[in-house]
Structures are given as structure tokens and as C-alpha cells.
Design a protein that fits this description.
The chain is 86% helix and 0% strand. The protein has 5 helices and no strands.
Length: 259
């Protein structure tokens, strides 16, 4: 049983939430105002009916009063003609009309009381409707302004999130560029050091690179010796040995042996 109550409560909560989301305050205020106008119109129609009934009673009373006055005159005429019997009949009829007039008077008073009550109710309701209309327009303006402000807030929130995403995208791009630059620099350094072959370079193998390095060292030594000779600090530099030829010392020994 408790499970059913909980399920019922959950369903009711979801239904209320859906209704709250679908409910438009402006539409609800206008609907409430229309209902109040309808109630005011009902009271005014009832008031019109009461006034009509009162006028009808007044017309009936006037008619009966005219008949009563006529019977009074007929009674006088009958007595003038020594017709007491006719005078008595006229007065009897007039007495019956008097009772009807009294009943009409009582009804007229009741209807008039109802009229005053309805007039008071209609005036009071009119005041309430006017006050509600003013309050309704104020609330609608406030709701519209609040809705616009909320839309602006949501837009600003979206812009902020978009700018944040853009900033993160830029940061990621900068990080990738920096990483690629570092990798490119490392590859260049490895290629220059000979750790990696230069696929797009001169196409020299490792032996050729060693020979080139030795030649560069010998050239540096020769230039250094030449500088020392110019300064008088050393003998002129000896020529670098060439591949397949004996150096000067070996040539001298061979000449001495020959002599």
C-alpha cells in the first residue's frame, strides 16, 4: 500500500511539474479576469430581471388601483340612484382588489430589496474587477520583464559557455602547435647529430660522414699550423697525407736507403 502511495505521489509530482512548466501566467491572469467579467455579467442580468419584475408589479398595481377607483365611483353612483345593492357589490369588488394591491405591494417591496442587494453586489464586484484588471496588467508587465531578463541571462550564460569553449579550443590548439614544434626541433637535432638518417638530405652514409668529419678536422689543423707559421711560433705546417701516398718522413727514409 505504501508503494502505491509513493507511486501516486511521484505521478502527481511529475504532473504538477509538467503543469507548472506549461502554465503561462499571462494566460492564467486573462482567464481569471474573463471569469470575473462573466460573473459580473450574470449579476447584472439578474439585476435586470429583478428590475423588470418590479416594473411588472408596478404596472399590475396601477391597473388594479384604476379598477378600484372605478368601483369606488360606481358605488357612489349607485347610492345616488338609490341602488344600495349595486353600491354594496362595487364595494365588495373593490375590497378584493385592495387585498390584491396589498399582496402586490408586499412583492414589490421584496423585489425592490433584492434590487438594492444586487446593485450593491454589482458595484462591489465592479470595484474588485477593476482592481484585479489593474493588478493583472501590472503582473503581466512584471512577468514579461522578468522573462526578458531571464532570456538575457540565459543568452549571456550561453555566450560565456561559448567563450569558455573557444578559449579551451585555442589552448588545445596552442598546446598541439607547441608539441609539434618541439617534435620538429627534436627531429632536426637528431638528424644533425647523425642519430637519424636525413631522408631528404645529401644521401651520404655513415662512412662518408666520418670521412667528411676527418677531412674537416685535418683542414682545421692545417689552418691552425698556417697561422702559427705566420706568427713565427712554429714551423710551416706539413701537408696533409693523401690516400695511397707515403708521407714526407717515409719518403726521406726511402731516399736515404737508396743512396
Amino acid at each position: 500500500m505504501s508503494v502505491m502511495k509513493r507511486l501516486s505521489g511521484i505521478v502527481q509530482a511529475k504532473a504538477n511539474k509538467a503543469l507548472d512548466k506549461a502554465e503561462n501566467p499571462n494566460e492564467m491572469l486573462d482567464l481569471s479576469y474573463e471569469k470575473q467579467i462573466e460573473n459580473l455579467q450574470k449579476i447584472r442580468r439578474a439585476l435586470a430581471d429583478v428590475v423588470t419584475a418590479k416594473k411588472r408589479l408596478e404596472l399590475q398595481a396601477n391597473t388594479l388601483q384604476q379598477q378600484a377607483d372605478k368601483l369606488q365611483d360606481q358605488a357612489k353612483q349607485a347610492l345616488g340612484q338609490n341602488r344600495e345593492d349595486l353600491a354594496r357589490e362595487a364595494l365588495n369588488r373593490r375590497s378584493a382588489l385592495a387585498d390584491q394591491l396589498q399582496n402586490l405591494g408586499t412583492q414589490h417591496q421584496q423585489v425592490e430589496t433584492q434590487q438594492h442587494q444586487l446593485e450593491t453586489t454589482a458595484a462591489r464586484m465592479q470595484t474588485q474587477v477593476d482592481a484585479f484588471r489593474t493588478k493583472k496588467e501590472t503582473l503581466k508587465a512584471s512577468y514579461t520583464a522578468s522573462k526578458a531578463q531571464a532570456s538575457i541571462g540565459e543568452a549571456m550564460s550561453g555566450i560565456s559557455e561559448s567563450m569558455t569553449d573557444a578559449g579551451m579550443t585555442l589552448q588545445r590548439a596552442e598546446d598541439k602547435i607547441t608539441d609539434m614544434q618541439a617534435r620538429a626541433g627534436a627531429l632536426d637535432e637528431l638528424i644533425d647529430s647523425g642519430a637519424l638518417p636525413d631522408a631528404i638530405g645529401s644521401g651520404q652514409d655513415d662512412i662518408q660522414r666520418q670521412l667528411n668529419a676527418t677531412s674537416q678536422v685535418g683542414q682545421v689543423d692545417a689552418e691552425l699550423a698556417a697561422l702559427k707559421a705566420q706568427l713565427g711560433t712554429s714551423e710551416p705546417p706539413a701537408a696533409l697525407p693523401t690516400s695511397g701516398q707515403p708521407d714526407a718522413a717515409e719518403a726521406g727514409d726511402e731516399d736515404g736507403q737508396a743512396r
